[in-house]
Amino acid sequence: MPLLETQALHGRYGQIEAIHGVDISVERGAIVALLGANGSGKTSTLRAITGTIKTEGTVLYDGVALHQRTPEGAARLGIAHVPEGRGTLSALTVWENLSLGAFTKSRKHMQERYERAVVYFPWLEERKHQTAGTLSGGEQQMLAIARALMMEPKLMLLDEPSLGLAPMIVRQIFDLLRKINKEDGVSILVAEQNATIALAAADHAYVLEAGHVAVHGPGDELMRDDRVRRSYLGY
Amino acid sequence: MHDLAQQIVSGLAQGSIFASLALALVLIYRAMGIINFAQGELAMFTTYIAWQLTQMGLPIWLAFAATVVVAFAGGVALERIVIRPVERANQLTIVIVTLGLFISINGLAGWFWGYIVKAFPTPFPTTPLQIGGVAFSAQDVGVIVVSVVTLGLISLFFQKTKLGLAMRAAALYPEQSRVLGIRVGWMLALGWGLASAVGAISGIMIAPVVFLDPNMMQSVLVYAFAAAVLGGIESPLGAVVGGLVLGVVINLLGTYVDAIGNELRLAAALAIIVVVLLVRPAGLFGRVTVQRV
Q1: Considering chain A, what is the average pLDDT of its residues?
Q2: Is the pLDDT score of B267 beyond 90?
């Protein structure tokens, strides 16, 4: 049984429907990539899963159908959504950002989670009291991932973690994601425009086109797929 | 000199009442981006509740504590019942709802307790305090102490507790906060509760001076608004400093400038609002927001 499964998932912004029946699934312990051009529905799919936008269709999480999805409800079930643009609370300090990730947990538990996050991001310790808005883009993305780790998630949803970052930083972030996936057993669903790096990390990938799943398959298979290569990898 | 010192202390006392109500306004403004025009009337109504409790034989300090609790619960309930349905509407709609609350609460108080002015017992001793050879009114000093303690506790709550942090996050970044599992709607309700509790304290502090009647808080609201604008409408610290400065300035102007006297104090407060908005719209402590277009 997959950890997450969507069936005929629709998502709307007011009257405008952005995704029209998306079926994807994330196996336990897997990294799954959600690829596609701008406006193909990657962000909307993630938002529909957590109920940040109006949705129809079924989301099965851990075998249970999530009815009346809300972002705060999803967070409390162990789905950590790192939104587009990182969602850093820029006026607050690094530590305040992190502790809000563990908002629903006890103080002791919060400390444990913090120690876990620092394993991956040791620089957080010395920058604890810095205002998050003064961090570089890459650091803010890492802070957002560390904050997601504070939530002790089973599933992490990441929306374009590579956005606006230098290739070296992007590689570093994906290496860390792979490590978090392996060592903490966090399943990952990552929406990316940078197909090359996402496919290299992913066990399975879905390519979205105009709000539908166009192609899907194991990461290395898609990497060899001519259509995917021409459209998204550019060679 | 003695006279000046007394005037300054009495200005600080008034100012700390403005500061409390201004803080209540700022709490709501930060969370929702609107001025709650009913804030003063809420304070008035809860002051009546305190009066009612003293009439039932409760000692004033006990009535004070009970009223703050009731005010908190009432603020939460009001947000859940009246504001929640329009939470996502545009700001003008919410402002109109608070104006509706203003009128309803005022009418309700008149209906329950009548429009005849009532005396409100002071919780402080009536004998003056001698400090450094100058006699200060114990009422003034007491009001300053209570307000400072209140504002200090509120500040500690926001800076040091997880719930306070979550409330700040929910006010500044509602979308991102929800994704972290914070129930933003409830944080808003708590904000209303806190604002209403702080407002109740300002009402009880000023009632022995201006006496109790359904319109008692209306001019105080204008002063509080002036204080909030002066300090920067988004800054809790600004509200407090703005309130104290305004209290002292208005009191000194009223005392030493014959042309202003008692009658033109409110007009002076309005003048301050206009001047601040013209010269420094963000207020003393407000940050100028630069928007990329």
Answers
A1: 90
A2: no
Is A128 within the bounds of a domain?
Answer: no
Q: Does A96 reside within a domain?
A: no
Q: What is the DSSP string of chain A?
A: --SEEEEEEEEEETTEEEEEEE--EE-TT-EEEEE--TTSSHHHHHHHHHTSSEEEEEEEETTEE--S--HHHHHHTTEEEE-TTTT--TTSBHHHHHHHHTTTS-HHHHHHHHHHHHHH-THHHHTTTSBGGGS-HHHHHHHHHHHHHHT--SEEEEE-TTTT--HHHHHHHHHHHHHHHHHS--EEEEEES-HHHHHHH-SEEEEEETTEEEEEEEHHHHHH-HHHIIIII--
**pLDDT number for residue B1:** 64
Instruction: For residue A168, give the CATH number of its domain.
Output: 3.40.50.300
ipTM of the complex: 0.88
Cβ distance of A89 and B184 shorter than 8 Å: no
Distance CA(B7)–CA(B27), nearest Å, equals 30
* DSSP secondary structure letter of residue B81: I
Residues within 8 A of B (CB atoms), A 35-94 only: 50, 52, 70-72, 75-76, 81, 83, 87-89, 91-92
